[in-house]
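Subject: design request, 398 residues
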């Protein structure tokens, strides 16, 4: 099978890049007959040398927005012009490259967060283009659509009106590059970000308003009012944190306690997740939410939002809280900080959850291949790790 996969987001740190980095090798190992071609549109062509061995880069060269317009309104150029013959084409977010007639077109939709909660975004122009223009046209042309969580499928159906039978839920897996780091690795990562002693970590990832950083800072200040005894809080994400975040840190008197750092992924992040006392992830909206899984793979107990896909992903393996309540976040921080038994409980649950074979990328690859082939029986034969999660338990006593 010759598969053309859109790699437009490869150069951007985040969930789509992680999906590509893990899915491509899993597809390769699933069948020796698979031929993978990654479509590199516009400036993304510069990452061709970073692709996994055996994957063929296909630089398309043309400006990305020009390609988008031509594909959606003219029906040209076809990917075969650049890649040669293909048996399936797979778009990995908004864009769905145009293939020859009869070639199945698959679209993975990471989320519809902007359509559901536009107030959580500070770039309406770019997001309008992606969610309201590209996604709209791509959904019309897709033969089958992949959602990465059941809550994401529900939102997709509700806000776009797409036929639910057209949407297949393929949950993501645990990145095997995340596991407990050695003491030496932890010490090196600590030195690089300048953090000593006890600390909490928020692996923010993409820095947007939906990550709820302001409430997190207010909750941290409430949970640990004494600057002498409070732990540190480390916020990690690619790029520079916005001025509003830095101003709030100063206004709350947290300048000596809060660090904002861009850390290397996955090595330094893995080491810092291992070193932290516990992690927080009170995000207001997630299409899936990989960071809590990555953290649990590093033996880190987690405090996680009870919204959108997060409860599906963590099941009973994290302490769930209302992310819109500063008091609830603060209470969760206090409970996890003060009780070793509560932390040990969630650490053990998290370890079991991420070790489940259903969270392996080989399962993801088999289900994606079933979507390519429109094989419902093969798809249903795989275990969905999001559907058998135990109901959330808020009653664990400190």
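Subject: RE: design request

Done. Sequence follows.
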């Amino acid at each position: 099978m010759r598969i053309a996969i859109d790699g437009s987001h490869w150069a951007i740190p985040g969930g789509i890049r992680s999906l590509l980095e893990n899915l491509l090798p899993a597809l390769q190992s699933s069948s020796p007959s698979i031929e993978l071609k990654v479509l590199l549109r516009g400036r993304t062509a510069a990452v061709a040398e970073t692709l996994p061995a055996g994957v063929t880069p296909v630089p398309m060269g043309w400006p990305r927005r020009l390609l988008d317009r031509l594909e959606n309104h003219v029906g040209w150029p076809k990917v075969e012009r650049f890649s040669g013959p293909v048996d399936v084409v797979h778009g990995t977010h908004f864009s769905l490259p145009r293939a020859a007639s009869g070639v199945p077109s698959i679209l993975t939709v990471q989320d519809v967060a902007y359509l559901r909660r536009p107030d959580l975004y500070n770039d309406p122009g770019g997001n309008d283009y992606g969610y309201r223009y590209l996604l709209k046209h791509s959904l019309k042309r897709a033969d089958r659509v992949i959602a990465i969580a059941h809550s994401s499928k529900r939102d997709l159906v509700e806000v776009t009106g797409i036929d639910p039978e057209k949407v297949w839920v393929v949950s993501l897996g645990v990145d095997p590059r995340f596991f407990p780091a050695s003491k030496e690795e932890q010490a090196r990562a600590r030195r690089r970000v300048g953090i000593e002693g006890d600390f909490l970590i928020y692996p923010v990832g993409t820095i947007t308003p939906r990550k709820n950083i302001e409430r997190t800072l207010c909750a941290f200040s409430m949970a640990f009012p004494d600057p002498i005894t409070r732990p540190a809080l480390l916020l990690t994400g690619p790029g520079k944190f916005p001025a509003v975040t830095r101003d709030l840190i100063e206004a709350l008197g947290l300048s000596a306690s809060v660090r904002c750092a861009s850390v290397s992924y996955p090595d330094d992040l893995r080491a810092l997740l291992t070193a932290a006392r516990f992690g927080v992830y009170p995000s207001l909206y997630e299409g899936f939410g990989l960071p809590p899984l990555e953290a649990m793979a590093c033996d880190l107990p987690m405090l996680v939002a009870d919204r959108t896909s997060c409860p599906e992903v963590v099941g009973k393996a994290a302490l769930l809280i209302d992310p819109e309540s500063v008091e609830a976040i603060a209470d969760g921080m206090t409970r996890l900080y003060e009780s070793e038994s509560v932390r040990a409980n969630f650490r053990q649950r998290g370890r079991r959850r991420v070790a489940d074979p259903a969270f392996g990328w080989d399962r993801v690859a088999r289900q994606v291949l079933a979507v390519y082939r429109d094989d419902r029986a093969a798809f249903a034969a795989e275990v969905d790790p999001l559907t058998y999660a135990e109901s959330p338990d808020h009653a664990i006593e400190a």
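The chain has two domains: 2-169, 183-355.
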